[in-house]
Amino acid sequence: MNYFEKMKGHTQSPPGVGALEILWSWIGGFLGIAAVGLIHFKLLDQTGLMLIIGSFGASAVLVYGAIRSPLAQPRNLIGGHVLSALIGVAAHQYLGSVPWLASAAAVATAIALMHLTKTLHPPGGATALIAVIGGDAVHRLGYLYVLMPAGLGALVLLTVALLVNNLSPNRRYPEFW
After folding, report:
1. Which of 81, 84, 59 is nearest to 69 (CA)?
2. pTM of the predicted model as reported, rounded to 2 decimal places
3. Read out DSSP for 120-158?
4. Phi, psi of 155 (to 5 degrees)
5. CA–CA–CA angle 36, 19, 72 (5° rounding)
6. H-type alpha helices, the chain
7. Helices 74-95 and 152-165 meet at what angle, rounded to 10?
8. Average pLDDT rounded to a whole number, residues 47-53
9. Per-residue pLDDT averaged across 144-157, rounded?
10. Residue 52 Cα distances to 75, 127, 134, 150, 165, angstroms
11. At what angle do helices 123-133 and 99-116 cross, to 10 degrees?
12. Which residues are CB-neighbours of 55 under 8 A, at least 6 positions away?
């Protein structure tokens, strides 16, 4: 097969999901992000700490909308965010004077580490990148960024996913730990 033919794909698009599945995904996504946001704005914002980061939006898509995906399972959600945050902070601290280099090193190394630890979670790449480009508020956190927002926020999303995804008799989460 030639190089460009591979870009055509080889399977059909997956089937759509029903209205009930969409509703459960919406409920989970709403409650998960609301819980993280509420904790952030009611408890942490007053202390100058943060809990909500953009990569949690992508995690919500996986843990509430694609619950059977290996990328959405608890070890991937928690491990992907925590390990990627650790790599991102280290990249900023060692290479931060060259932001494009620190960004590339953070994302690429996070991908490699998630592969090595079987915790591949695509939003983890964004978590690593946010540690580098997130600005002064993120940079002041240093390695605390690994615990909060990355670890604690992912744990809140997981808790909501466990509760909401198992309310429906047709849904089951997780597939594995």
Report:
1. 59
2. 0.92
3. --THHHHHHHHHHHS-HHHHHHTTHHIIIIIIHHHHHHH
4. -65, -40
5. 45
6. 19-39, 55-65, 74-95, 99-116, 123-133, 136-141, 144-145, 152-165
7. 160
8. 81
9. 96
10. 20, 11, 12, 8, 21
11. 150
12. 81, 123, 124, 125, 126, 127, 130
Buried b (16+ CB within 10 A) or exposed e, 104-122: ebbbebbbebbeeeebbbb
Structural contact between residues 53 and 151, judged by C-beta atoms closer than 8 angstroms = no
Q: Which two tokens stand for residue 73?
A: 């399972």
Residue 120 is encoded by which pair of tokens?
Answer: 């591949």
Helices 123-133 and 55-65: angle between axes, nearest 10 degrees: 170
Contact of 119 with 176, CB cutoff 8 Å: no
User: Quick check: 53 pLDDT over 80?
Assistant: yes
Cα–Cα distance, 45 to 39 (Å, whole number): 9
User: Which of 44-48, 58-62, 132-136 is predicted least confidently?
Assistant: 44-48
Task: List the structure tokens of 131.
Answer: 């540690």
The HSE-up count of residue 123 (CA atoms within 13 Å, CB side) is 25
